[in-house]
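User:
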Amino acid sequence: MVGEAEVTLCLGPYSKAVYESLLAEVRQPAPRKADVSVELEGGCVKLCIRAGDVNQLRVVLNSYLYLVHAAYSTLKTYPT
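Assistant: Predicted structure:
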């Protein structure tokens, strides 16, 4: 079974910074449990994940959503 998820996050003025944070993570040369892509579309961050099974999908999706939360929370706390 293959697990797939596509999440679109419209984060207003923070979308680009969150996108760049996720892009840096996606580009890391590390062993992958899933194929991950991230795009900036119309001011929103689009995160696509494809994993070998639903459990791997859950693990990877939770990790990326945690990164989004950390970046977004930090940006809102310390606006430029």
